[in-house]
Write a structure and sequence with these properties.
The chain has helices at 18-31, 42-53, 56-70, 91-96, 99-109, 136-139, 193-202; strands spanning 33-36, 80-83, 113-123, 150-155, 166-169, 181-183, 188-190, 205-207, 215-219, 224-226, 235-244. With 288 residues, it is α+β, with helices and mostly antiparallel strands. The chain has a single domain (23-260), classed as Jelly Rolls (Sandwich), CATH 2.60.120. A six-stranded antiparallel beta sheet has the order 1-9-4-11-3-2. Strands 8-5-10 form a three-stranded antiparallel beta sheet, with no helix packed on it. Helix 1 (18-31) crosses helix 5 (99-109). The chain binds 2-oxoglutaric acid.
């Protein structure tokens, strides 16, 4: 399963049963993704949504996206708001370090995992979707030697085909890291269309429709993308990106993502008291 030997780690006490974890890990390695239904409550998602909507910086990003989109640009990258302060007790970190995700990820990778960065996808009604790409295409260049990484997308709003939910090519993680090409018009990198057409004949395309509070975990080499959101409804999601202890980056990069450090697993629910707890969006780790 793993592409490298794991270091020795102290076992954690788990809340999920061994049978659930084992079954979910098998599904993940077979298909390259795993849906976790009802990972979070509707109330927790309302709190996360309010935290996003009350945040001045995310709001400014939203108006920038609107201006660009209205001027005819199709810049999917603008819709992603990323930060590196992931080990604290802010509302977002508490969700991405929740045991529902962490325990599954540690079972999947047979190692300690840590949140490598968090991001919010600001998918408002008018915004563009992403070309098919792999997240490891980017992380490879950030000193991560092994593709033992994953992303968990938490549905703050329901994700539907109409609002441009994530879609994956099931099993594509088994193809390894694939070259990407840059599309100037969309300002977005993705797999070349001719290769993609062939891949689609081998891998099923799965639209990941999620209810509020569901999450999907996908492997860093799983090809994923999204359609434009033409629904008139927002599709906000919180994405935790995870790395493994044995894959500690060998260098710092301008993205400033953290090196391996032990992170606590959160077992409590997010509450209204967390609404004003925000991460430091300006944290960039510049040296090992
Ligand atoms: O949510 C989306 O539309 C795509 C996000 C994505 O692919 C990413 O952040 O890597």
């Amino acid at each position: 399963m793993l592409s490298t030997a794991t270091g020795s780690t102290t076992a954690r006490t788990r809340l999920l049963s061994d049978a659930t974890l084992a079954e979910d890990a098998v599904f993940f390695w077979r298909h390259g993704y795993l849906i976790v239904k009802n990972a979070f409550s509707g109330e927790e998602m309302e709190i996360a949504k309010a935290a996003i909507q009350n945040n001045g910086r995310m709001h400014r990003r939203l108006s920038d996206i609107r201006t660009k989109t209205e001027s005819g640009k199709h810049n999917a990258f603008e819709t992603i708001f990323v930060w590196n302060d992931v080990a604290g007790d802010d509302v977002f970190a508490k969700l991405t370090r929740n045991y529902q995700l962490f325990e599954r990820l540690e079972e999947i990778f047979s190692d300690r995992v840590y949140v490598y960065h968090n991001k919010v996808t600001l998918k408002y009604p008018f915004v563009p979707g992403f070309r098919y790409h792999q997240d490891y295409y980017y992380w490879y260049g950030m000193g991560c030697l092994y593709p033992d990484m994953a992303t968990a997308s938490i549905a703050i709003d329901a994700a539907t085909r109409e609002n441009g939910c994530l879609r994956v090519l099931a099993g594509s993680h088994k193809m390894g890291r694939i070259e990407h090409e840059f599309d100037r018009e969309r300002e977005d990198s993705g797999v070349a269309e001719d290769r993609l057409a062939i891949i689609k004949t081998r891998c099923d395309e799965v639209w990941l429709e999620l209810g509020v509070g569901d999450a999907v975990i996908f492997h860093c080499n799983t090809l994923h993308g999204s359609d434009d959101n033409t629904s008139g409804q927002s599709r906000l999601a919180l994405l935790g990106c995870y790395n493994t202890k044995h894959n500690d980056p060998y260098m710092a990069t301008p993205s400033g993502h953290p090196f391996f450090h032990e992170q606590s697993i959160v077992t409590s629910k997010v509450s209204r008291a967390d609404l004003n707890k925000m991460p430091n969006f300006d944290l960039y780790i510049t040296a090992k």
